[in-house]
């Protein structure tokens, strides 16, 4: 079954950085999502199959950078200037294209990011 696997979360101080990794199929666009307690899951970034295009939510634009290495079947989310409001469980998922809201396969367990003030 198609499933992306996330890793790299942890506890970091406000202003710090983390890099999340996602093991994903190279034939799909990959979206990064996050879900904070009591809130809906939101998509924060996406990268097309050939890395030609990337998208970011306004809340992370300028602080987060998505990239991928198709040879390694990996997608990364570099998170800089972290804020306490970035605290959430982070997930990646396969998509046909970034503009689509359809997710292929199942959600993984996610990776927890906690930013202390």
Helix content range of the residues, please? under 10%
Rg estimate, integer Å = 13 Å
Amino-to-carboxy terminus distance? 39 Å
If you average the pLDDT, what whole number results? 96
Order of helices and strands: EEEEEEEEEE
Largest sheet: 6 strands, mixed
Helix segment tally:
0
Shape: globular
Enumerate the strands of the largest sheet in spatial order, edge to edge or round the barrel. 2-10-9-4-5-6
Structural class label: mainly beta
Which runs of at least 5 residues are low in confidence (pLDDT < 50)?
Answer: none
Percent in strands:
over 45%
Q: Number of DSSP strands?
A: 10
Outline the structure in words:
- With 117 residues, the chain is mostly beta strands.
- The protein is 0% helix and 47% strand.
- The chain contains no helices and ten strands.
- The protein has strands at 5-7, 10-13, 18-23, 29-35, 42-47, 54-56, 64-69, 74-79, 88-95, 111-116.
- The strands form two sheets. It has a six-stranded mixed beta sheet, with no helix packed on it. The protein has a four-stranded antiparallel beta sheet with strand order 1-3-8-7, with no helix packed on it.
- Strand 5 and strand 6 (54-56) form a beta hairpin.
- The mean pLDDT is 96.
List keywords for this structure.
117 residues; six-stranded mixed sheet; 47% strand; globular
Quick take:
With 117 residues, this protein is mostly beta strands.
Secondary structure layout plus pairing:
Elements: E1 5-7, E2 10-13, E3 18-23, E4 29-35, E5 42-47, E6 54-56, E7 64-69, E8 74-79, E9 88-95, E10 111-116
Parallel strand pairs: 2-10
Antiparallel strand pairs: 1-3, 3-8, 4-5, 4-9, 5-6, 7-8, 9-10
